[in-house]
Amino acid sequence: MLDRKKDRDTTPEAEPNAQLMIGKRSTKTWIYISLILFALLVFLPLLWLLFSSLKSQADLTMNTWGPPKVWVWSNYIKAWKGSKIDRYMLNSIYVTALTIIITIVTCTPFSFVLARFQFRFKRLLYFVAIAGMMIPIHSAVIPLYMMVGNLGQYNNLSMLALIYAAFRIPVSIFILEGFMSGIPRELEECAFIDGCSTRKLFMKIIVPLSRDGIVTISVLAVLACWNELLVAMLILSKPECKTLPIGLMGFITEYNSEYTQLAAGIMIAIIPSILFYIFAQEKIEKGMIAGSLKG
Amino acid sequence: MRITKNNRGTVILFILPGLLLYAYLVLYPIAQSAVLSLFKWDTLASKRFVGFDNYVSVFSSSLFWKSLNNSLVFMVATTVLQVIIGFFLGYLVYLQLKGFRLFKTMFFIPAVLPSVAVGFIWSYIYSPSMGLLKPLMTALGLKAYYIPPLSDPTLALLAIIIAQTWNSCGIQVILFNSGFMNMPAEVIESATLDGASGLKMIWHMIIPLSWDIIKMVIILQLIGALRAFDLVYVMTGGGPNHATELLPMHLFVNAFQNFNLGYGNVIAMVIFIMALLITITMRKLMERDSLY
Description:
By secondary structure, chain A is an all-alpha fold.
């Protein structure tokens, strides 16, 4: 008993004692079976896609399930060359990166003011900013479409990034404000005593300390922008400007019956997403939790 | 900190860019949508004020009610499925048996894939020529029952529900898992010492303790399902015979294919108000002090 007390003092997270919580030993087997079953359900469609992308057309027709008899890598080369996937990916990267930059530049100072200053309309301002989280982009899409047309900004990737960034503002402010509120005030008081201006305080102290929050909102922005379809579809029509999701759709209609090449193209398109996820997994988890806690 | 003459300029500088961008591209369009729902476009260039005519045409259109119905079915089905599966798997992952990290990773991967890819994968799984569904059913001796789901009005929506669940379930797993990790350790430990385990543990301890997270997941999922557009667009375009036309798809068809922008704005308003209503109602409904 004494040992367990020591453990409890040093471990901050709740580490469940699985055996005690499950009960019968046999349940453990069932648990593993369930986990593996669901993991297979998740994984099999992707595996099927992978296999299909490496088969020849004939192989696919005769052998839908199993691994490819011969690994046809040329599908990938044909898919890469035949479509403009590299162009689409670059466009997506550009839009996503620009969105992140705009989001950070607009939201970090804003959250700082909300977190640290007191003024008459602060609560109202905060509420207005956060309320945007409930506005589905679909409800604003028609006026946005018309607005972009009136400004003559169709096919302008930067315009798309501006729109994306605008819709990221509520969540980002919500998260950042939370982060910044947690920064101890003593640091600022020291800075003031040393004669630091507000601007310097912000740049030299708050921003570095909010790095985690900034990373979080960036990761969430990537997830939101990279796969976005509707707005991109409405605003971008020129082939050179398309982002990955739209390009992918066009690719599918173009190569309609060449399933193996389609599969290869799709594999190429999803690899960045999977890589991003593997590298940023922890941040993504933290970000999702932070973004979902609507107070 | 108070705003003084000295730092007032800085404060305004800090707020202005974000506020302007947000107001111009988010708040203004929503307001515009409300206003424009009262107009009708005879041609693309001219519009005239028609009051609530558009609302009348929307609410008397059977297609609208069909898509509303589809959306409701879709929302409830995906929420129920994802919450149950997410809770279940989140709990199993939370138990931190060996290899739980790998499982967590795997469950989440579909959620980062572009919807076009997900739509493609599932369209082909369901397809009669190249898919997995037909061979699977044949193997189970059910060959006679196979209908291509996406061409069948009754099955199509179910097919999309399954694809959507596959796509987004991982998010629920992660959310629930984190929620469970935030439960106070001492309470759980004392419960195990008192002999609670298995289902009793779940029913009496886990569910009440994580009620906040459950509430949140349900609301988020409902609202997310309300906006579901991508998969429908990619897999069926709303068909067959409007069987899978959800509200956002209905909006898209009317506004951008039929160029009935006033009508489309009404639907936009409907979606918006529904989102608000759901948030407010569900919060009130599910108010229950968690056992803290």
